[in-house]
Design brief:
Layout (H helix, E strand, L loop, with lengths): L12 H9 L8 H6 L10 H19 L6 H39 L12 H51 L8 H32 L2 H36 L4 H30 L7 H28 L13 H6 L3 H22 L3 H32 L11 H23 L2 H35 L5 H10 L3 H27 L7 H13 L1 E3 L2 E3 L1 H29 L7 H26 L8 H13 L2 H16 L7 E4 L2 E8 L3 E6 L4 E5 H6 L3 E2 L7 E9 L5 H14 L10 E7 L4 E9 L5 H18 L29
Antiparallel strand pairs: 1-2, 3-4, 3-7, 4-5, 5-6, 8-10, 9-10
Helix pairs in contact: 1-8, 1-9, 3-4, 3-5, 4-5, 7-8, 8-9, 8-14, 9-11, 9-14, 11-12, 12-13, 12-14, 13-14, 14-16, 16-17, 18-19, 23-24
Keywords: Cell membrane, Membrane, Signal, Transmembrane, Transmembrane helix
Subcellular location: Cell membrane
Membrane topology: Multi-pass membrane protein
Length: 812
Amino acid sequence: MPHTLIRPFLILSLALGLALGGSHARAQSPASANTAPASASSTQDPAQALSGLNKQLDAIKTTLSNKSVDNTALADLRKQTGVLQQQAGQWVETLTPQMDSVQSRLTVLGPPPAAGSPPETAAVSQQRRQLERDKSKLDSQIKQAQLLSQDAAKLTTEIAETRNVQFQTQLAQRADSPLSIHFWSDLAKSFPDDQAHVKELGALFAEGVGNAWLPDNRAPFLLCLVGALLLIVPGRWLAERIAFVLASRFMPEGHFRRSALAVIFTLTVTLSIGLAFWLLHQGLNWNDTLDEDIDGLAQSIVRSAFFSAFVAGLGRALISFRHPSWRLPNLMDATAHALRWFPWLLGGAFLLLGVLEHLNSTAGSSLAAAVCTRAVLALLISGLVGAALLRVKRIKRSHEHGHQQAKHPLWVGALAGLATLAVVVAWLAVFSGYIAFAFFISWQMLWIGMIVGSLYILTHLQHDLFETLLTPKGRSGQKLQSAFNISPGTLEQSSTVLSAVCRVLLLLVAVGTLLMPFGGGPNDLFSHIGNVFVGLKVGQLTIKPGAIFNALIVFIAGLLVTRVIKRWLSEQLLPKTKFDLGMQMSIVTLLNYVAVVIVFALALKTADVSLESLTWIASALSVGIGFGLQAIVSNFISGLILLAEQPVKVGDWVSMSGVEGDVKRINVRATEIQLWDRSTMIVPNSQFITQNLRNVTHGNALGRVKITLPMPLGTDAAKMRQIMMDALNENQATLETPAPYVRLDDVTSSAMSFSGVAYVHSPRDASAVKSDLLFDMLSRLEKAQLPLSTPQSMIVRNLGPLGDDSPAAPGQ
């Protein structure tokens, strides 16, 4: 399984390692060079190029049909197919603009003249025919290129499946056990040939070193060597110190600083060691002096160095032996102390694995040597994992009854149990002869551990990042609250939702990486991870995390833009118009509903969800509306009618069915009315449409103040009228138009009744103005010595049937 050994470095260091490792790549092998298609260019005939690509694809299919194709040949075919697919895609990109240009010119010419219309000139007709021919030709070529790209993609999948089948077959094969004599006798027989091959490589390497020491190459070689030595120890230490100082100065205290430092320290180890190996390779091959085989081996070792450094840096960051306060997992100090060397040992084991595997592949070692190498590596890796598990278990037992006990989630125990089982199975497989299977298990332990560790750190990083950026008490959270008028609760909810979404995406990437076909190489890994974002098919359901993530971004961005526009309308534009406050609130609310619907539709479109595919949802909703959602839909439609027709708007004084108060807010389903006791009544919108409603302030109605005063019969009516008129006119709240007036309403046997009427700007002011007028009038009447009329008292006496007071009594 040579290609499993160059699996790319997951997360962060992968792309950099591959780019740096391939920056000085050699020319293609003869097979690849002869079959690699040329890039699409404007000087090359598309028809000939596409025909050549088609022939190359047929040749690859013919080669693949040969049952004797080994894993190395399959890898070469996989590479050729990928290049072919890329070139077909380039031709699609090259021909599409030409097709658009021809279509634009046809559009300018317009449709052909209809029958009976004046004919067009011969030049225009010839140009139209030529453009039609060009359009047909380009359309055919574009479709051919697209079909080639699709066939190449299918062929790539077929090659990966074939390699997977071969790999599974290799796992099932049994070799001689290391406990048997045949195992060692075969190794002894092939030892002379293997030694000769290694000596040849050694001679080529020594020649490369000698060439690097030539006068023209000596200075670059020494500079690269010194740079590599400085990067490994002092460079890494200096980078970590600088990162710690910058984090302490510019990052807020809390969990985010801890998780960010864990990522930074992982990168410092990865880049320092990986770049050191890359510098050594550059120094040895400064002027392309290395032999092609040695250069390929060196590039493979550089990639393995990046990977092994990432493993060591990741484990070192998780254990954090020297700085317990930076430690992300809940480990005891004794456990961290016991495991402090294991990340470096595992990283070194993987580097040894990469070096030996690529050395065997380059030197063409015998089968016995390859089997022995894999057996040793399987025992070494699984032994290191088993030793780490034993140390952790021993420390846990020694602290069971102590005070320092760390609690771990269930998945940690499950992983530890699976690792223990894998170690036992790997050792049994090695000594029973299933060395390929044992090697696979050992490699998968290292691979899965790296993925789980990376997922653990990145999950903490994104959670702490969102928590720091969106905390209501933080600087960024306060800026978001002031800029977008976001409540603290909304910020906390956004932090939780965004963290959950990122966690799901990271988990999908991790699962997609773990489920990569066994025996795959870098291209297979990238393709598999890409398929996770393009579309993860589960049965008949295709999940597209990439599209869902884009739709979520569109939805959040749309809501933020809607909030900004809503705030701009309510605070800047609408206050400068002639609309009253209620009309402004209605306009803002209605536009907000429309904007949310548009943003939701755009998010669905971004997620590749067709509205036609939602017909079953509409059917279900129609059934639900018919049974239980009638009231909700009725209130929703009534709310839209209220916002559009505005029989009631925010700020109106309404009275209906025993409810009287001010309209504070019109929502989608109900309207909030604030009563006189400052409580809020929630009234369904349908009641405003179907019931009688009294709107006191509808149409900016004026308030009317009426004051009635009873006066004695002997009161000077003219003087009384003047006093009341002066009070009404001199009050600042009363209006001049309509003008106030005073009338003599009634004259009875006991009093004269005067009434004064005045108008104010709003019915809400009537009560307060009436109180002020009464105080003023009573004061004026007191100064004018005009008392109000008092009601007559009635004395009731019981005269009896013939009492002394009875008129019918004797003597009266």
